[in-house]
Design goal:
This is non-specific serine/threonine protein kinase. The chain has 651 residues and is α+β, with helices and mostly antiparallel strands. It has 4 domains: 54 residues, no CATH class; 90 residues, 2-Layer Sandwich (Phosphorylase Kinase, domain 1), CATH 3.30.200.20; 182 residues, Transferase(Phosphotransferase), domain 1 (Orthogonal Bundle), CATH 1.10.510; 224 residues, Neuraminidase, CATH 2.120.10.30. The strands form 10 sheets. It has a 5-stranded antiparallel sheet, with helices on both faces. A 4-stranded antiparallel sheet has the order 15-14-13-36. Strands 16-17-18-19 form a 4-stranded antiparallel sheet, with no helix packed on it. A hairpin with a 4-residue loop joins strand 29 and strand 30.
Length: 651
């Protein structure tokens, strides 16, 4: 006990010693010694404390207070060298130019706004940064490129007036431009389709002039294209209001490029496949890069994104999503032109004359829905999670998306359905919110219903939707029930429940309907049940593994048209066609392409003699000719499919 007390007192004394004055320390030691003596501590225990106190008095004290901050140099001191450099450049060039202000700094040069003392015109003076001036090759390239551009005579190419050296200061005097970069216009979505096409037509014409001189630009990108102030018109752009720049000024930002023959230069997002491979380039590489810029100007996003190596791989191997799939208002002819410009094989790309004709042709933005029927899809995508495609697979409308605004949801739809009034129904899973939503074909959110819960009219997981006789039927896979709502979202009735069959279900997955019947994919019981619209059990459809076995085959999809029922046999990867009495009429093999899972659920939509079938999670819709059984070319969706239905145009 005494030893422990002594140890604690020593620690306390050492901790306080660094902060206490000598007299305060002596007082503390005497106090602790007296306390120890009173508790019966022996003298040999107390005596070391006194020796330690004498040692502490003789040793320097340690300062444990807050550290003092070292004063930083002032900003003016830090910029002294930069300011002196600017002064040196101004002094060297002051005989020819009056430098007005520094307008930008790039990776290799500084650009000043200046006034030519002889002509009085404003110019942009580009001066290499000091660390590059000592490289003779850099200096030669700097002036050689200026010489090339000085020979260019085209209204859409930035002009170079002069270049040279004064007292060791190299410079290029070029056209001073006031406007905005195409990159900023795209980012702020301030361009119509006609304006974007008109701008890129002028750039294509400028490239024709450059290529005629035997020059390849190699760095076509939105940041190297400027639209001058006031050049944008309602129906296009002033033909003289666009500039293609190797270097220049855009919104205070310096854009520079020094061509280095044989090097892989440029921005990966805008590189051609041959440029990404480091191969020898010709004028067709610029056409590809121009196609990337056109793609971005029309859709608001480049075709390939990601890290450096990812984009390089995509440029070489991946086919981009057609622009019309991202913006259905893009005319098909314009979407096709972009894809031709983005051909991996340079020989298949169009000439610049063809590009200019395509961009300048008379076309209109596609806004209406001219066809009587469309495919209605729910897909996994950030934008356009609900889509209308014509029967050839061309996107006509993109609705909803991932987000928090009106008509946007935190997850893609679980199912989709269309009613006779043209309304588009979707179901989503969102804990604590309403799970059923009705949209107009234009994308306006009309109503929301079906809150999360287990009471009548509430849902836990609305996995499937179907519309019949003016009612919306909702299959809740968690409660294994089917609810009926009117088209205003008002609850009417509910039936089903967990069970072995005959009107009850085990893990139901899908729902199809005719004007008289409902068909429920009773996945857990390996059957499809047919119910009356009021929930009465009518019959079931199932397949045995063999004649000798009572075990049933797994079913993974259901569709219906008229008197024909279509069931997907998962184990055989075939679609079985039955009449409503249960007789087998035909079997069609469902193709299995790369990236598709044979065990996935399949959305089945028979219509007009064609069976449309999409495996959930795959990005294509298979088509089968129901007369011949022949597999037709699939429709590419460019996004994982989650639901498929038919939308009838009420117009």
């Amino acid at each position: 006990m005494q030893g422990l007390l002594a140890f604690l007192l020593v620690l306390l004394t050492a901790a306080l010693a660094s902060r206490l004055s000598p007299w305060a320390l002596w007082f503390l030691l005497l106090l602790l010694s007296g306390a120890a003596w009173a508790t019966g501590a022996r003298a040999e225990v107390v005596f070391p404390w006194l020796l330690m106190g004498l040692g502490l008095l003789a040793s320097p004290r340690v300062y444990l207070g807050p550290r003092r901050r070292v004063q930083r140099r002032s900003r003016t001191q830090g910029r002294a060298s930069s300011g002196s450099k600017t002064t040196e450049e101004a002094r060297a060039l002051e005989k020819q130019y009056e430098i007005l202000e520094k307008v930008g700094v790039g990776g290799m040069a500084t650009v000043y706004k200046a006034k030519d003392r002889k002509t009085g015109r404003l110019v942009a003076l580009k001066v290499p940064q000091e660390r590059f001036v000592g490289d003779p090759r850099f200096v030669r390239r700097f002036h050689r490129e200026a010489e090339v551009l000085a020979k260019m005579d085209h209204p859409n190419i930035v002009k170079v007036y002069d270049h040279g050296q004064v007292d060791g200061v190299h410079f290029i005097a070029m056209e001073y431009l006031e406007g905005e970069g195409l990159d900023k216009l795209i980012e702020e979505r301030r361009l119509s389709l006609k304006q974007a096409a008109a701008i890129l037509a002028r750039v294509a014409d400028a490239l024709k002039h450059i290529h005629a001189q035997g020059i390849v630009h190699r760095d076509i990108k939105p940041g190297n294209i400027m639209v001058l102030k006031g050049a944008l018109k309602e129906d296009g752009v002033d033909p003289r209001g666009v500039r293609l720049m190797d270097f220049g000024i855009a919104a205070g930002k310096v854009l520079t490029r020094l061509t280095i023959t044989g090097a892989r230069i440029g921005t990966p997002v805008y590189m051609s496949p041959e440029q990404a491979k480091g191969q020898k380039l010709d004028h067709r590489s610029d056409i590809y890069s121009l196609g990337i810029v056109l793609y971005e100007a029309l859709t608001g996003q480049p075709p390939f994104t990601g890290g450096y190596e990812t984009v390089i791989h995509q440029q070489i191997f991946q086919v981009p999503t057609p622009p019309k799939q991202l913006n259905p208002q893009i005319p098909q002819v314009l979407s096709d032109l972009v894809l031709k410009m983005l051909e991996k094989d340079p020989a298949k790309r169009p000439s610049l004359d063809e590009v200019i004709r395509g961009l300048s042709a008379s076309w209109e933005e596609e806004r209406g829905l001219p066809h009587p029927f469309y495919l209605l899809l729910g897909v996994e995508a950030k934008k356009g999670t609900v889509r209308l495609l014509d029967l050839s697979g061309t996107a006509a409308r993109l609705l909803s998306g991932i987000g928090s605004g009106p008509g946007y949801f935190p997850a893609p739809p679980l199912s989709v359905a269309a009613d006779g009034e043209g309304g588009i129904w979707i179901s989503v899973f969102e804990h604590g919110a309403k799970l059923l939503h009705r949209f107009s074909p234009e994308g306006e959110l009309l109503l929301s219903a079906g809150p999360y819960g287990m009471k009548p009219g509430e849902f836990l997981f609305p996995a499937a939707l179907a519309v019949a006789n003016g009612s919306l039927f909702v299959l809740d896979s968690e409660t294994a029930t089917v609810s009926r709502l009117d088209l205003k979202g008002q609850y009417q009735e509910r039936f089903g429940g967990q069970g072995p069959g005959r009107g009850t279900f085990q893990d139901p997955k899908a729902l199809a309907a005719t004007p008289e019947s409902l068909f429920v994919l009773d996945y857990g019981n390996r059957q499809v049940q047919r119910l009356a619209l009021d929930g009465r059990y009518l019959s079931r459809y199932a397949f045995r593994r063999s004649k000798e076995s009572e075990e049933l085959r797994l079913l993974g999809g259901v569709g219906v048209e008229g008197e024909r029922l279509y069931l997907y046999d998962v184990e055989a990867a075939k679609v079985r066609v039955l009449d409503l009495a249960g007789s087998l009429l035909a079997s069609h093999t469902l193709p299995l392409l790369e990236g598709e899972d044979r065990m996935s659920l399949v959305e089945l939509l028979p219509f007009g003699g064609i069976l449309y079938a999409a495996r959930r999670g795959a990005s294509r819709i298979h088509r089968i000719d129901l007369k011949t059984g022949e597999a037709l070319p699939p429709l590419e969706v460019y996004a994982p499919v989650r639901a498929l239905a038919l939308w009838r145009n009420p117009a």
